[in-house]
Amino acid sequence: MTRTQSLLALDAAHVWHPFTQMQGWLSDSPLVIERAEGNWLIDTDGQRWLDGISSLWVTVHGHRVRELDDAVRAQLDRVAHCTLLGQANVPSIELAAKLVSLAPKGLSRVFYSDSGSTAVEIAVKQAYQYWQLVGRPQKRRFLALDEAYHGDTVGSVSVGGMALFHERFKDLLFPVERIPTPHAYRWKGRDVLSESLAALEHLLAEKADTLAGLIIEPLVQGAAGMLVQPKGYLKGVAELCRAHDVLLICDEVATGFGRTGTMFAVEQEGVTPDLLCLAKGLSGGYLPLAATLATERVYSAFLGRFDEAKTFFHGHTYTGNPLACAAALANLELFEKRNTLEAMRPAMDALARGLARVASLPHVGEVRRVGMMAGVELVKDRATKAEYDFGERLGFKVCLAARKRQVLLRPLGNVVVVMPPLSLTVAEAELLGRALCEAIEEVTARPRESR
Ligand SMILES: *Cc1c(COP(=O)(O)O)cnc(C)c1O
After folding, report:
1. Do 314 and 122 meet the contact criterion of CB atoms below 8 Å apart?
2. Most distant CA pair in the chain: distance in Å?
3. Residue-wise DSSP of 361-430
């Protein structure tokens, strides 16, 4: 047995992988990653793989970035962890100030946690408690988009809307009002923008008195398949929420930190939410860290005498972890030092050119992209937009075929996700585009045989 084989045997014996059917796990030929350099992961056999999904959407400036490594090491020489209950720590203070300086104006308070799910869970609970504190406890329901994904804890699943992931848990979830996904590709010939805003306006006119907040992934619904919203949609949603006094919660767990070409996606529509959820890219892909940002309006409602019990009774053991905050601070400083939002443009353009060739393939229904965030929807029939069966695992097969070309990708059903680090080079972007193109051609040329 090689070292890799024995590691995989141990893995199969003991590790239960997320979102994974473990029966057949080894036949999906998993890699065992051991090291990394820049935008490349290196496995236990010494093979190099381009990280085309930023290690599940988190890597920003690449792997093993000197400045981030140094920041974590320097913090290790001070303290790895201490609690935010009853005390403060240096990196969490400095990071909060930095986040507030970067976030849309008005978001002035930072509540830390450790995953996107908890960032959302916290926003939902803050919004819920807020209305009780200001004397309107009947505003207690939430409004969310169909096909939304906000994480995997019970509260974040409640506001999520992905039937495949969530149906099984439906008895555990609290009820949520829904508005349709503004999905232009599937809404054949209809006016997506005005119809979806009209649906929202209708619902708000009827139910705003019972609604605490609306939660949305701004610009792009990621896990739903990189569904890009029509221009003006987010702004319209924000204006309607404002007009009907419903708190706006923007979940930028996926879109934050340069992913869409601006630091935050909401900037592109001039929107300031009441609550902003951040995670994935926050620590540059180094350590688990999340933050929920709130406005002064929300925050100040929680202030009162001790015995009034207006306190936000929520916290996680590792809240404000100094190592993670030090990594995040270094990550944010690098955006300035490297001028990342400008520097990423040539690679973004190269990626766009590569994806334009992908879009012309006969089994590609649509390519959707915002910045360094894209999805390629595979269809059985381009004219009718007929979908491949779930069991055919077309997206997965395309990713396996891309791997033969040194590129690591992950599908969401029949959508192949393309989410490279912002530090991608032009040459790497070209490799990514070429590999994906060839992989799709290889798999769709003979979908029957490979079933
Ligand atoms: C990934 C994601 C989450 C959940 O984050 P975790 O860190 O996996 O809990 C929430 N919202 C969005 C939009 C995401 O993409």
Report:
1. yes
2. 70
3. STTEEEEEEETTEEEEEE-SBTTTTBPPPGGG-HHHHHHHHHHTTTEE-EEETTEEEE---TT--HHHHH
- Residues 302 and 296: their CA atoms lie apart, in Å, by 10
Query: pLDDT (tens digit, 9 = 90+) per residue, 280-327?
Result: 999 999 999 999 999 999 999 999 999 999 999 999 999 999 999 999
The tokens describing 333, both together, are: 């400083």
Q: Is 114 in the pocket of ligand 1 (CB under 6 A)?
A: no
pLDDT in tens, 196-225: 999 999 999 999 999 999 999 999 999 999
- Residues 110-145: pLDDT tens digits? 999 999 999 999 999 999 999 999 999 999 999 999
Domain layout of the chain by residue ranges:
31-61+341-450, 69-337
CA dist 117 and 151 (Å) reads: 4
End-to-end CA distance of the chain: 30
Can you tell me the distance from the alpha carbon of 91 to that of 75, in angstroms, rounded to the nearest whole number?
9
Ligand 1: distance of its center to the CA of 117 in Å?
A: 6
Closest atom, ligand 1, to C-alpha of 280: 7
Among 115, 266, 280, residue to substitute to test ligand 1 (most atoms within 8 Å of Cβ):
280
The values of phi and psi at residue 407, to 5°, are -115, 130
229: pLDDT strictly greater than 60: yes
Q: Is the separation of the CB atoms in 126 and 303 below 8 Å?
A: no
Q: What is the rounded distance in angstroms from the CA atom of residue 361 to the CA atom of residue 437?
A: 8
Specify whether the CB–CB gap between 215 and 221 falls below 8 A: no
**If one looks up domain 31-61+341-450 in CATH, what number appears?**
3.90.1150.10
Its CATH architecture, for the domain 69-337, is: 3-Layer(aba) Sandwich (3.40)
- Residue 150 Cα to ligand 1 midpoint, Å, equals 5
**Contact by Cβ (8 Å): 420, 409:** no
